[in-house]
Amino acid sequence: MNSQAKDTRVQRWDLFELELTGLEVGNPYLDVQVQAVFRFNQRSVKVDGFYDGGSSYRVRFMPDATGEWTYETQSDQAELDGVAGTFTCVEPEANNHGPVRIRNDIQFAYEDGTPYYPFGTTCYAWIHQDEALQEQTLRTLEESPFNKIRMCVFPKNYSFNFDEPEHFPFEGSAASGFDFTRFNPAFFANLEARLMGLRKLGIEADLILFHPYDKGRWGFDRLDARTEEFYLRYVIARLGAFRHVWWSLANEYDFMAEKAMPDWDRLLRYVQDHDPYVHLRSIHNGTKMYDHASVKMYDHAKPWVTHCSIQHWDVTMTSIWRDQYKKPIVIDEICYEGNIPQRWGNISGEEMTRRFWDGVTRGAYVTHGETFVHPQDEIWWAKGGRLYGESAERIAFLRELIEAAPAACRPIPEVRDVPALGVPGQYYLHYYGIHQPLYRIVDLPEGETFRAEIIDTWNLEITPIEQPLSGTCRVDMPGKPYIAIRIVRIEQV
Questions:
Q1: Phi, psi at residue 402, to the nearest 5°?
Q2: Is 426 exposed, middle or buried (0-12, 13-18, 19+ CB in 10 A)?
Q3: What was the pLDDT predicted at 293?
Q4: Helical ranges in 246-362 per DSSP H
Q5: Which parts of the chain have pLDDT scores under 70?
Q6: b/e map of 208-234 (b: 16 or more CB within 10 Å)?
Q7: CA 76, CA 55: separation in Å to the nearest integer?
Q8: Which residues fall within 8 angstroms of residue 20, CB to CB, at 6 or more apart?
Q9: Which pLDDT score is estimated for 75?
Q10: Where are the beta strands (DSSP E) in 255-399?
Q11: Is pTM beyond 0.70 here?
């Protein structure tokens, strides 16, 4: 038996991989078990390995502490059992901040403490397109403001996306049927290459593990419970050591009629129990059951959910969700900028920008999507490719402002008639949206001096107000929509 560790020096939160050579025994996905125990000082972490086709077995690990780690494999096959070694975990490079974690009830941060503000986008089936389109998607993302992407593991059979992908997660084909006891290494090799491309760009991968957009074509939406868990365990073993992965159990889970709420509880708990790295976990609702009087969705307060992933068009619900779930809120679908016939896919760039600003100043995070009609149906939300809308540039502007704000910013409920974010006595960001006042009376602490700026969120202009502010004072405004005010205390020297 041969084994090889690709690296003996690994950055903290980077990928250590041990490649093992073993026998093909029966169905190795089912019949061969391989794990490894990694030890650092008095701590040990046990992780699953996986079969990768041919005679190749792999174990992947993400170390979270610097220093010397040891490892030893455990397997029911002699060739894979008892392989031991060491590697050194070194300090991370500047662009490696570790996995994203929950910082508090409204905020995220990387594991090293660096604040993380999700400004995401949606490209559900981009990894299922041809290589040229996948490469174009990465080039577009490189020039975009987005630091998170929602993407499916399984292919989609849905509007504007009926193409047959080259590779599937399981062996087989639509014509011959799929063997749900055997995975397809070629599919996962491409997925991993695309994940590494995202990591290079600093983009978190919010992986959607199940979805309803199959409609009986391939059968991936109606796996039995045993196969679901078999699939999840394999995905976690292969991808869990990627620091930038999030687990979204399902997109529009409530559209999957063959599953009930206990099924989603079981699957979320399964991921929680089998992921040694405690990646973020969420589940995303549809709108079939929606009206303003009764919003029915998964109970995000359950302990196996780390944050809220919500579909809703009304960002004013943010404070209700925060009070109900007491977890960070990501409004992952808020309609899409575009011009397709469906009501959810034809809002303007102005409206998308407004919803971003409104949601963020209420203390939530908002995810972008784009759905412009294209001759070859290369629509960003479905397939990736290029962006054609007007909101991305404005979202970049908002992201810069938010990342420059104090990390302690929270919604300010005392400002009752407009959404406001800030640190009272230090920093205030008000957003007026569709309202267009000619002036605003603001209440600031007496004895402190502040500077104010008028922000035109659509035209990307920041105009300073020359007169310093203090106490209760008037701020003159341009009397047009989509205006924000930023007020910052002037530090006394």
A1: -70, -40
A2: middle
A3: 43
A4: 261-274, 318-325, 349-361
A5: 1-7, 288-296, 492-493
A6: bbbbbbbeeebebbebeeeebbbbbbb
A7: 15
A8: 1, 2, 3, 34, 49, 56, 57, 58, 59, 73, 79, 80, 83
A9: 97
A10: 281-282, 308-311, 329-333, 337-338, 365-368, 370-371
A11: yes
pLDDT in tens, 420-465: 999 999 999 999 999 999 999 999 999 999 999 999 999 999 999 9
Amino acid sitting at position 304: W
Q: Which of helix, strand or coil describes residue 297?
A: coil
Least Cα distance to 19 among 63, 55, 46 occurs for: 55
The C-alpha atoms of residue 117 and residue 78 are separated, in whole angstroms, by 47
Q: Which two tokens stand for residue 202?
A: 């600093």
Could you tell me where the DSSP H helices lie in 101-217?
A: 131-142, 185-200
- Write the DSSP assignment of 419-441 as a string of letters: -EEEETTTEEEEE-TT---SEEE
For residue 492, the tally of other CB atoms under 10 A from its CB is: 6
Of the chain, the end-to-end C-alpha distance in Å amounts to 69
Residue bearing tokens 């809308």: 389
pLDDT tens by residue, 165-182: 999 999 999 999 999 999
Q: Which two tokens stand for residue 123?
A: 């490209």
What are the start-end ranges of the H helices in 103-184? 131-142
Question: How far apart are alpha carbons 421 and 109 in whole angstroms?
Answer: 18
